[in-house]
Amino acid sequence: MLIKGECLKSNLLQTIHDAILYSGSNWTEISSNKEQDYNVVGGGSDGWVFKSPVIGGEGQSIFLTLKSQDFTQDGRNLIMIGLSEDYSPALEIGTNGIHTNKFYEVWAICNNAKNNDMTWLPTDTIEYFIDVLDHRILIVLQKKSETLYNYPQYCYIGYPNLNTNLESPNAINQFIFASNLSGLDSVNRPTWFKTSQPKSSSYNPYGQIAISYVNLNINNPTPNGMYLMHPVYLTGDGVVSPACGILGILDGLYFLPATNISNGDIIKVGDDTYKVFVKQYTINNFHIDMGIGYRAYYDSINASVFAIKIS
Fold first, then answer.
1. Which end of the chain is more exposed for a tag (fewer CB within 10 A), N or C?
2. Are 47 and 65 in contact (CB under 8 A)?
3. How deeply is 131 buried, as exposed, middle or buried, from its count of CB atoms within 10 A (0-12, 13-18, 19+)?
């Protein structure tokens, strides 16, 4: 279910909230303390906590927490994305619920330290594409601009395609992917959320770093005039489980080589229509002190051109 449109940056988090709960969605909001106090890094209210339907043979739901800085203020750019194995709302409304092994990452949706064009003001219009399925949420954002610089970016939260999901009793196979995702590791590594009380000592109870892999063809279009879009494969983290094989394939996010393609291009594949986005920034070396040490912004996937199905 794809929800697309435009909103002011000041209303972006509310727009994402409403899309997750849009008519036809099977997600529910379960937070008992929904106040947005803009305390992204720690403390404060629960913010918004969402629960997906039960997924897969292990019967695990996604418990997603979203909070942001105050987007009505200049220079506020961060969204906190949290995953938990479980969440129990408090009996009293306005009191924080209890998470089981919450793990979070911070998505910097824009950054004013490198390029003035990339500063998203509260009054700027943001074009959004929010695709909600039972097992994952895919968010694509870009600034609406008359220039060539829209700075599109993505965030994928949840399970890989369930037909490819390597599920086991030892792992909650959920992921957080994003462009400009904060992390403490090297480039092109999304967060792999595993399990709470590990049934095997080889698994970390919180987040580990997985490896993303995209096998791009050299040029687009091919000699027969076709544009080929490639999925993202997930593999082991290379540290505690280097031989676990393919963990799954991302659902609905595709990548292309950066040749003969422009941001906003439309590709037709049969009866399906795809919109192309070209990432226009690199801030791999930017660090920010968020009160818990220094964190670096990276891209979870190395390819710079991505596409999503829009109809």
1. C
2. yes
3. buried
Under 8 Å between Cβ of 244 and 234: no
Cα distances from 157 to residues 21, 126, 192, in angstroms, run 15, 20, 10
3-class state of residue 87 by DSSP:
strand
Rounded to whole angstroms, how far apart are CA atoms 292 and 123? 30
What is this structure's pTM? 0.91
Span 213-260, pLDDT tens digits: 888 888 888 888 888 899 999 886 555 555 567 889 999 999 999 888
Question: Please, are residues 55 and 159 in contact by the beta-carbon 8 Å criterion?
Answer: yes
- What six digits make up the tokens of 89? 């709302």
For 23, counting Cβ atoms within 10 Å of its Cβ (0-12 exposed, 13-18 middle, 19+ buried), the class is exposed
Number of domains present in the structure of the chain:
1
> 3-class DSSP state for residue 309?
strand
How many Å apart are CA 223 and CA 233, to the nearest integer? Answer: 26
The C-alpha atoms of residue 144 and residue 128 are separated, in whole angstroms, by: 10
CA 115 – CA 118 distance, rounded (Å): 5
Residue with tokens 């795809």: 274
